[in-house]
Design a protein that fits this description.
Layout: H1 3-36, H2 45-53, H3 67-70, E1 78-79, E2 86-87, H4 102-117, H5 123-134
Antiparallel strand pairs: 1-2
Helix pairs in contact: 1-5, 2-5
Pfam families: DUF1924 (PF09086)
Organism: Zavarzinia aquatilis
GO molecular function: electron transfer activity; heme binding; metal ion binding
């Protein structure tokens, strides 16, 4: 295979991957929009930002915000508060496959919302959170 053809194939694959990630994220957001119920008027990055930054009461005292582990800059590598394990950036610009697997998204919200908020997140909160981090 010629180097030029190989380069073309690599470049052609990148947008398809990005488009696939965007489509998967859109499908997840569409599901949360449908679950948000009557009166839903769209997701808001402005509402998602304070969900990420906190602080919140009701959850574990050691995790009053997502930013506790993920840092206030969602583009930065975070660290688990207890284990110190690195956590890839939450920002979609830094971790393009973030929020592209519904099973993974639900697993994380199912674990982290009770730890941070002391309750499950609503579909509106989930969509706002993803919308905020998709713009970071």
């Amino acid at each position: 295979m010629s180097p030029l053809l190989l380069l073309f194939l690599i470049c052609a694959a990148v947008p398809a991957s990005a488009a696939g990630n965007e489509a998967a994220r859109k499908d997840i957001l569409d599901g949360y929009a449908a679950a948000a119920g009557p009166g839903f008027a769209g997701f808001s990055a402005e509402r998602g930002r304070p969900l990420f930054l906190g602080p919140h009461a009701g959850g574990k005292p050691e995790t009053p915000a997502c930013a506790t582990c993920h840092t206030p800059d969602p583009r930065a590598v975070g660290h688990h508060y207890r284990t110190g394990r690195d956590i890839p950036p939450m920002a979609v610009s830094q971790t393009p496959d973030r929020f592209t697997s519904l099973a993974e998204v639900e697993k994380r919200f199912g674990r982290d919302c009770p730890a941070v908020l002391g309750r499950d997140c609503t579909p509106l909160e989930k969509g706002d959170f993803i919308t905020y981090l998709s713009g970071q």
